[in-house]
Amino acid sequence: MASVLPYGRFTHAVVRGIPETFGKVEDEKNNRVENGETTMDLAKAQRQFGVLTGALRQKVGLQLIEIPADPELPESWRIEDVAVIQGDTALITRPFKQQRRSETEAVRRVMSELNLTVVEMGAEEGGSAGATLEGSDVLFTGREFFVGISSHTNYRGAEVLADTFRDFAVSTVPVCGGVRLKNICSMGGPDTIIISNSDGAKKTLRMMEQLTDHHYEVLTVPEGAAANCVYVRGPSKVDYLLHPPTEECPESVPAFQKLTDYTLLPTACSEASKLGGSLTSFCLLINRKPYY
Amino acid sequence: MTTEVGSETEVKKEPEKAEEQPAEPERPATNQTYEVKVVEAAEQSNESPALATDSAEAKENQEEAQPADNATGPEGEEPPASPPASEKKGISRFLPPWLKRQKSQSVVGPKESQVTPKEEGGVVLVNGEGEKAEQAEAEQTSSTTAAEPQVEEEQVNGEVEPEQKEEVNSEEPAENHSTGSAETQEEKASEKSQEKSAAEEEKKETEEGGEKKDQEECLKPEGGRYFIKSPLKLTKKVKMVMCHVIMLDGSQFPCEVEKRAKGQYLFFKVCEALNLLEKDYFGLSYKDNADQTCWLDPTKEIKRQICNPSWQLAFNVKFYPPDPSQLTEDITRYLLCLQLRQDIVSGRLPCSFVTHSLLGSYSLQAELGDHDPDEQRLDYISDFQFAPSQTKEMEEKVVELHKTHRGMTPAQADTQFLENAKKLSMYGVDLHHAKDSEGVDIMLGVCANGLLIYKDRLRINRFAWPKILKISYKRSNFYIKIRPGETEQFESTVGFKLPNHRSAKRVWKVCVENHTFFRLMTPEAPTKAKFLTLGSKFRYSGRTQAQTRQASTLIDRPAPYFERTSSKRISRSLDGAPVINMIEAQDSAPTSVGNGREPGLELSSDSSKSGKLRVQGENIYVRHSNLMLEDLDKTQEDVLKHQASTSELKRSFMEATPETRPSQWEKRLTASPATSLRLQAQGRSPPPTTQEPLSDLTVDTVSKSSDDKQKSNETTLQAAEVEIEETVVVEEIRVAPKGSVTITTPEVVVTPVAVETEVEKPEEEVIEEVIEEGKEEQKRPVSVSSDSHSESEEEAGEYHPQVTVSTSVEQIKEEPGEEEKEEVDDHEEPEQVAEPEPLPEVEVETRPSPAVVEETPMAEPETALVVDAPAEEERTKDILVTLEEAPNGHAEDQPGLVAVEEEEEEEEEEEPRVNGDASHAETERIPQVICCSEPPVVKTEMVTISDTFAAQKTEIATKEVPIVHTETKTITYEAAQLDGSGDGEPGILMTAQTITSESLCTTTTTHITKTLKGGLSETRIEKRIVITGDSDIDHDQALAQAIKEAKEQHPDMSVTRVVVHKETELAEEGED
Question: Which residue stretches belong to region Disordered (chain B) (predicted)?
Answer without folding.
Answer: 1-217, 585-614, 641-718, 771-859, 899-922
